[in-house]
Amino acid sequence: MAIRFHNTFTRRIEEFVPQQPGEVRMYNCGPTVYSSPHIGNFRSFLLADLLRRFLEWRGYRVRQVMNITDVGHLLEDAEEGEDKLEAAARKQKITIWDVARKYIEEFDAARAFLSFRDAQWFPRATDHIPEMIAMIAELERRGLAYKVASGNVYFDVARFPAYGRLSGNTSEELQAGARIEVNPEKRDPRDFALWKIDPQHQMQWDSPWGRGFPGWHIECSAMSRKYLGDTLDLHTGGEDNVFPHHECEIAQSEGTTGKQFVRHWLHARHLLVDATKMSKRLGNVHTIAGLKEKGYGGDALRIALQKAHYREPLNFTLAGLDEAEKKVQRYRDASERLAAEAAAGGTAHATDEVAGLADGLRGRFGAALDDDLNVSVALAVLDEAVGEVNRRRPLGGDAAAFLALLREFFGVFGLLEKKTETPVLDDAGIDAMIAEREEAWKRRDFKRADEIRDQLKARGIELFDTKDGMR
């Protein structure tokens, strides 16, 4: 059966066919690092991780990018307002750079707690300003961007007729929904910022339009293009990203390249807590670290946040998380018993009956996920497999076949994986990696240079390329 996903852009379920056979280019909107990561953020992040695991289980090589937004994100996603990191820095009385560093560390810890597979790249917006400037300059050259007297640069929405197709917003609706106090700098209320000038902003870079910083939307367009090319196979995010963020990404990217930006869009619906929208005012915002401190495990949290279809609202409760803990223990008990029986059974082969049963369960599990990631059916098949394990005691020579089956299913859902700490490099190891990166730079292998930099960053070592060399 072919893999089929719902495409937000076309509003229908379509067969998923990547550009290159056997390879998937996937971009996932990652965190804006101005506060502690909470379960609402991680519903969409877990969709990305499930996609990665499922596609790899199906035999694809997945090239995955999840960005880190550490500049340019405005309050309430408005064009006018204070950068969220700036607001956090002022409140906490630390620098904006310290805010970003603090919450990137929390995000990495949360990913490890939840057994995420590492993306090949976690690019930070602040590391990719040259790519953003180049895209803005190209948009300006093509007549799709304009500079105003203040130095701000805006995308000219009227010059991109397809604007609004992803979200379904018509030009008339967008005009009617514009705020009463329209920014007089803009030619059109719908126009959005590509580059902003604000002397008070802590993060500043030189550009052809003056010293300033990028708008939020241009970041993902520039970073996805650098690592994955002009056209992506998959792009994910939360439903709140559809407009304006992803709508603007399409306009910028296709305006720059003249090519289709994304072949398939997937968006996760909102997460509710106790049937209510999460808000600080109601005190129902659960952070990953907070739930860990309460004693909950990462596997239970994965189940609680993946148990409903990604296109349906998910209601999170602590009672549901308690039930998920019981389910995890049931899985662990079955797995441990199978491992012990398989070890005792040596090289014995499974009976034809059990081999056929395993093949049937595997087929139904895969068919469910092929059908737009139908997780409820796939988890029901997993529970059925565990039920068979518990019903058949002892399993003898059949234990190894059942164990292999359960490990496949657990692997797709990211369950019962051994969590390992990132090894600490000694000075010699650090020096060797830095030397390798310098050699990669000399031969202009920037992809390898970026990979080494990201590997070092994951181990707490950050490299900066300056005009005076690397530090």
Descriptive account of the structure:
By secondary structure, the chain is of the alpha/beta class. The protein has helices at 39-57, 84-92, 96-113, 129-141, 171-176, 216-228, 242-257, 288-293, 298-306, 318-345, 352-370, 375-391, 399-413, 427-442, 446-458, and strands at residues 4-7, 12-15, 23-28, 61-66, 145-147, 153-155, 192-196, 213-214, 234-238, 265-268, 271-273, 276-277, 314-316, 465-466, 469-470. The protein folds into three domains: 19-268, Rossmann fold, CATH 3.40.50.620; 276-413, Orthogonal Bundle (Isoleucyl-tRNA Synthetase, Domain 1), CATH 1.10.730.10; 427-470, no CATH class. Helix 7 links the parallel strand 9 (234-238) and strand 10. The chain is globular. Mean pLDDT is 90; it is low at 420-424.
Gyration radius, rounded? 24 Å
Helix content: 40-55%
Task: Look at the helices and sheets and give the structural class.
Answer: alpha/beta
Strand order across the largest sheet: 4-3-9-10
CATH topology of the largest domain: Rossmann fold
Globally, the shape reads globular
Question: Which tags fit this structure?
Answer:
four-stranded parallel β-sheet, four-stranded antiparallel β-sheet, 471 residues, 46% helix, Isoleucyl-tRNA Synthetase, Domain 1, globular, alpha/beta, 3 domains, Rossmann fold
